[in-house]
Amino acid sequence: MSYFLLNNLTKRYDSNLVLNNINLSIEQGTFLSLLGPSGCGKTTTLKIVAGFESPDAGEVVVAGEVYNQLPVYRRNVGMVFQSYALFPHMTVAQNIAFGLEQRQLDPGLIKKQVAEAIDMVQLTGFEKRKPSQLSGGQQQRVALARALVIRPRLLLLDESLSALDKKLRVDMQVELRQIQKYLGITTIFVTHDQEEALTLSDKIAVMKNGNIIQLDTPHAIYEKPGSTFVAGFLGQSNFFQVVVKALDQGRYCLELGNGEQIRLPAGAAAGRQPGAACILAVRPERISLAAERPAGKDCLCGRVKFITYAGNISNFRVEVMGSEVIVQLQNSFSGERFKTGDEVYLTWDPAGSVLLDE
């Protein structure tokens, strides 16, 4: 039985449909990211789960209990906001103890649980400091400890790492994931950062215009996106307009606008008839460049227009058939292999591309 369910959840603000009858189901202990552009409905979903908003229709179910009519304080949900929302006049220990004190627990038990939470987020020695005396990463840890110390059924995170600088953000991603796995707590994380969602999640729900477009593991969504929106939003993709040709020796031939043909395994084009117009999606890191046409391989000819160096990789923008194709290559000690203006040939493993409906 699923631990967390959204059943036909719908929400409108005036005439604006924010959530369009969405359904979602995950098991206990799952780290789920709600990923999508601004205005797609992910934060509204989180607010409904927390009890700050009410749905117009549908249910929120946690551990078999319908949450719709429960007030916020009875939902046993821990939430970390983007701004952390710490009490500035309280110390670290007092901030973490606040939720336990509201539950009127024994003072001795509160002290013990606060000490455990402080140790868990590696803030021992900071108990008497105020939020203004802490760094951004330390404040984030306090907010996380305050959410976890109440032993919630759900941990809700609303863009809670976005205020940190890049290096600290990466470090906190690792710490957050380790704590979540150690506690086994079901977590729902709202983000618009694709890399963050891929790093942290067991499951990702990609949202657009109040709908869940695709729900799957990070690996499955990245390698086998179900639509051009998902392929373009989660990482980068190159899109080629193609027409499916007849099956040839167990492989489908895809014809591009310039007459070039790319062949795919038959299973990659399953269910599509000859003549069907489709989109071929290829990730930039899947493409290789060669100075000469490779023998026995399908390839496209192009010309390097622009190169950006990014340390371990270089990004190439190559003009192919009047369009721009992005290619990402690992840098080597031998130096730059191509330069702007070079004619190059683009190849990739057919298994590294995805055929999508137009």
Radius of gyration in whole Å, from Cα? 25 Å
What strand order characterises the main sheet? Answer: 6-7-8-3-9-10
Report the biggest beta sheet as strand number plus sense, adding barrel if it closes.
6 strands, mixed
- Spell out the CATH superfamily of the largest domain: P-loop containing nucleotide triphosphate hydrolases
CATH architecture of the largest domain, please? 3-Layer(aba) Sandwich
Question: What's the number of extended β-strand segments?
Answer: 20
CATH topology of the largest domain: Rossmann fold
Structural class assignment: alpha+beta
Strand content: 35-45%
Low-confidence stretches: none
Give the number of helices.
Answer: 8
CA-to-CA gap between the ends? Answer: 37 Å
CATH structural class of the largest domain: Alpha Beta
Estimated helix fraction: 10-25%
The shape, in one word, is: elongated
The ordered H/E elements are: EEEHEEEHHHEHEHEEHHEEEEEEEEEE
Overall structural domain count = 2
What is the mean predicted local confidence, pLDDT?
89
Enzyme class: translocase
GO molecular function: ABC-type polyamine transporter activity; ATP binding; ATP hydrolysis activity
EC number: 7.6.2.11
Function: Part of the ABC transporter complex PotABCD involved in spermidine/putrescine import. Responsible for energy coupling to the transport system.
